[in-house]
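User: Show me a protein chain along with its predicted structure.
Assistant: Here is one chain, sequence first, then structure tokens.
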Amino acid sequence: MTRQARGFSLIEMAFVLIIVTLLLGGLLVPFATQVEQKRIAETQKAMEEIKEALLGFAVANGRLPCPDMVVGAGANDGLEDPLGGPCAAAATEGNLPWATLGVANSDAWGNRFGYRVTINFATFGGITLGPPPTPGTLRICTDAACGSLLANSIPAVIYSLGKNGQSFSCTPVPAGRADECENRDSDNDFVSRIITGPGAPAGEFDDLVVWLSPNVLFNRMVAAGRLP
């Protein structure tokens, strides 16, 4: 008589576990990528809604809102600061005033949306058109050196710092982070380009940046009778 078949040996079980691990790893990587792509799409959709809300605010109020400042009285409450007066020259960048606008307060990674406005477009007396039209000082570039310009004279910029948020310091600027640090340095230049991972030739970049076109803003305000 033949002996009854035995169960798997330890070596055979080890091989089975290795194969299962490899198969699961192959499935989990695409799934993680899909989740990340979904978060990017959700954030982009929210930012487009924010643009429309800013245009609506400008039509209703004759100006763009001030930012919600990140420090000081009333900071991080979602309301534009200061209330009842013009934006201070040094207070044109902060959180998006989401409560004032009635929009989402953060991106798909849970980070607050950043917002920068050109002070001439947030004056409480209202935006005025003259010869030439009120200029914006903000620029959108394809890299930190602004070797290629995407847009100039921008009234306002909305940005998401992406998945990595504020997880690194820009003092000094780390290798491969120049473009992301450009969106964190509070100057007039912002970078918008394709998302790239660690080790990419142009450096890691996961920020999302959108902006208001001055021509679209003026057109909406003229159509609403807010500008001549």
